[in-house]
Fold this sequence. Notes:
Belongs to the nematode receptor-like protein srd family. It is a multi-pass membrane protein. Helices cover about 65% and strands about 5% of the residues. The chain is mainly alpha-helical. The chain has 2 domains: about 5-240, Rhopdopsin 7-helix transmembrane proteins (Up-down Bundle); about 245-275, no CATH class. Helix 2 (about 20-55) runs parallel beside helix 6. The longest helix has about 35 residues, at about 20-55. The protein is elongated. The model is unreliable at about 250-280 (pLDDT under 50).
Amino acid sequence: xxxxxxxxxxxxxxxxxxxxxxxxxxxxxxxxxxxxxxxxxxxxxxxxxxxxxxxxxxxxxxxxxxxxxxxxxxxxxxxxxxxxxxxxxxxxxxxxxxxxxxxxxxxxxxxxxxxxxxxxxxxxxxxxxxxxxxxxxxxxxxxxxxxxxxxxxxxxxxxxxxxxxxxxxxxxxxxxxxxxxxxxxxxxxxxxxxxxxxxxxxxxxxxxxxxxxxxxxxxxxxxxxxxxxxxxxxxxxxxxxxxxxxxxxxxxxxxxxxxxxxxxxxxxxxxxxxxxxxxx
Length: 280
């Protein structure tokens, strides 16, 4: 929805009921800051693993040094999006005039019950916040790829490390690489926006695509961490294999009538409280 002169966004859900555009805009800034922090952390994780493996003779870095480095690399992002969060918003007739000029097809009164418009001028703080996020993605991917290549070469040349340990390091690197590519999903929003402007496709709710992609990235990040970290993945597999829905129902007390005596004995859950076990 944004124009060359104004940054336009729409807030829905619980935020709309607060009737406070400044709070909704601040939450939008927090989401963008979280995505930027996420990209920075992925690059830091790749560099940290390279330092630990390549400089193993130096030992692990001190905790205070790590905290200082994290503070230093996150401080610029914090400043950028804190400044963005306090950008002045247009309200009332001024906001309506901007919407009528840029999006005359948008009926403000009809959508007022569904979403809250957030409009601000494209000042330095707004441009810097948007370009900051876009500018981080490609360098982060480059850092992670270079780090992964160099770490794999080091692992291949190390003789004193077991094959299992090498496999764990390789899997973690794959997870970091996959997570580094997640912000690239925002390209989908850009493609849809360009296609809509050129009338190649006609879709409603295009303003929500960025929020949906941000939510998807938030979900996929931890999933990749659990999958590519072998101890976590093995534990989840063990739990999935050992999970017994009938036994779970017995433990939960939601067992049903109609079980035969043989089925009841087979799925008795001895570790459950006696009052929650299937009654045979």
